[in-house]
Amino acid sequence: MKLIRYLPLIVVALLNLLGCVKDESYARQIIGTWEITHYDGRVVADHPEEFPQPRNMTFQSDGAFYETGTSRDGFGSYSINGGDIIIYMQGRAVFTIKIISIDGSSAFLDVSTQGSAVGIKLKKMK
Predict the structure, then answer these.
(1) How far is CA 61 from CA 10, 16, 29, 104, in A?
(2) For a disulfide at 107, which of 62, 94, 98, 122, Cβ 3.0-4.6 Å?
(3) Half-sphere exposure of 110 (CA within 13 A, CB side)
(4) How far apart are CA 45 and CA 23, in angstroms?
(5) DSSP 8-state symbol, 33
């Protein structure tokens, strides 16, 4: 009987633990340099006029973030909160990336800036 009384607390504790494990998994999986292969449903390589150079995102284990080939070229930092990656540049949050799925070599993400979201697909470079 005592176990039944504590069952809701046990369930909540287990769900919190699983959430932390997922955050740590995302934090490990996102490390590296990723090439943006699809942007807003379009294959980047098929649109050289819109995407004249490779577009890359780099996430380092120390929390550093680099982006090249986009209008936001530069560096900053990132943090992971649940399934969201928050990108900071010059000390302020610039955009949020929602992790849809990620595995060892590819990721599907939604990038949100100023109220709009764009889906991107990434391929891990290194």
Answers:
(1) 32, 24, 10, 15
(2) 122
(3) 8
(4) 32
(5) E
- What is the spatial distance between Cα 117 and Cα 89, in angstroms, rounded to a whole number? 19
Strand duo 92-102 + 74-81: pairing: unpaired
**How far does CA 123 lie from the centroid of its chain?**
13
Local confidence band at 53 (pLDDT 50, 70, 90 cut-offs): confident
Model pTM? 0.75
Contact status, residue 40 vs residue 49, Cβ threshold 8 Å? no
Signed CA dihedral, 78, 106, 58, 25: sign only: positive
| Strands (E) located in the chain | 32-39, 42-43, 56-59, 64-68, 74-81, 84-89, 92-102, 106-113, 116-124
